[in-house]
Amino acid sequence: MKKKEGFAGQQAIVLPHKVLQQCRRHPLIRNLYITDIGYYPKAAFHYRERKHGSEQHILIYCTDGKGEAVINGIPYHIQPSEFLILPAGLPHAYWAHEQSPWSIYWLHFNGNTGGLLSRMLYERLQEGDHYIKFNEELIGLFRSIYRQLEKGYSTDNLVFSSLCLHYFLSSFIYPEKFSLLKRHEKQKESISDKAIHYLKNNIHQALSLREISAAVNLSASHFSSVFRQETGFSPIEYFNHLKMQKACQLLQFTRLRISEVAMAVGVEDAYYFSRLFRSLMGVSPRGYRNRKEIKPQSDHATA
């Protein structure tokens, strides 16, 4: 049995098509940005094959168990604390060990400098120099990127994840130089952070602007102005991004019907949900669920 996903405890985020267009235009993001990111624990029967390669560069870091890969005809055996890099365009296949399936942190990235960074990592892999000692700070950096993207796709979050991605990849290219500064001061939660926390906890609701603003004790007009200033989006636009992020996960990791996914993210009208999903993700919900059976036409090709 071969599985592309569907593992207990798995996490994944796929950035919407429109957000990726924004990444490609932004001067601070277009050089390096994430298209997909996730974690698969004890991924028994995990298997992926791309005969023509991926449209993105893919980094996989194994923290437990074992896996194998064939990249451009060359076999690799992956142990704990070792990484794989799959440069865009190279044919490849990779899979979890049958008796000891791997646990992996993975991400897909693109950008103007993505190819150069991918080649540097690929040189290390080819030389057999792909051991990266497990480091809680390294995993903490990955989780920090994930958490920011999980909050939504404000320009601040995208720039933050892009800048962190440079640091994260450099820790694999120059592991001996990697260190992460300790942070002792707890940062004050902003108005938008409080609102986003409320939105994430009520993703199944159809909230109005008035209800959201009341949750942070501000008038609707003042809250809307502050939120847009801090995130670059209106509260409802941001809420829709969060809803579609959750919908992507449900479509990818469950067999819920489209109408059930819509209800789970607080959209009663399945037709409206489909239109909203397509407008943000560039593909219909059904097309998104079945996308791995067709040749990808965008930046997306989840691990």
Structure overview:
The chain is of the alpha+beta class. It has two domains: 1-184, Regulatory protein AraC (Jelly Rolls, Sandwich); 189-303, Homeodomain-like (Arc Repressor Mutant, subunit A), CATH 1.10.10.60. 43% of the residues lie in helices and 17% in strands. The chain is built from eleven helices and nine strands. The protein has helices at 17-25, 114-126, 136-150, 155-173, 191-201, 209-215, 220-231, 235-253, 258-264, 270-281, 285-289; strands at 11-14, 33-40, 47-50, 57-64, 67-71, 74-78, 82-86, 92-96, 103-110. Strands 1-2-9-4-7 form a five-stranded antiparallel beta sheet. The chain has a four-stranded antiparallel beta sheet with strand order 3-8-5-6, with no helix packed on it. Helix 5 crosses helix 8 (235-253). It starts with 10 loop residues before the first strand and ends in a 14-residue tail after the last helix.
Quick overview:
This protein has 303 residues and is α+β, with helices and mostly antiparallel strands. It has helices at residues 17-25, 114-126, 136-150, 155-173, 191-201, 209-215, 220-231, 235-253, 258-264, 270-281, 285-289, and strands at residues 11-14, 33-40, 47-50, 57-64, 67-71, 74-78, 82-86, 92-96, 103-110. The longest helix is centred in the middle third of the chain and has 19 residues, at 155-173.
Offer a few descriptive terms.
four-stranded antiparallel β-sheet, Jelly Rolls, 303 residues, Arc Repressor Mutant, subunit A, five-stranded antiparallel β-sheet, 2 domains, alpha+beta, globular
Question: β content, as a range?
Answer: 15-25%
CATH architecture of the largest domain: Sandwich
Q: What is the count of distinct domains?
A: 2
Main pleated-sheet profile: 5 strands, antiparallel
Average pLDDT figure: 91
CATH homologous superfamily of the largest domain? Regulatory protein AraC
CATH topology of the largest domain: the name is Jelly Rolls
Give the helix/strand class: alpha+beta
**Name of the CATH first level of the largest domain:** Mainly Beta
Order of helices and strands: EHEEEEEEEEHHHHHHHHHH
Shape: globular
The tally of strands reads 9
Using only C-alpha atoms, the radius of gyration works out to: 20 Å
The largest sheet has its strands arranged as 1-2-9-4-7
Relative helix content: 40-55%
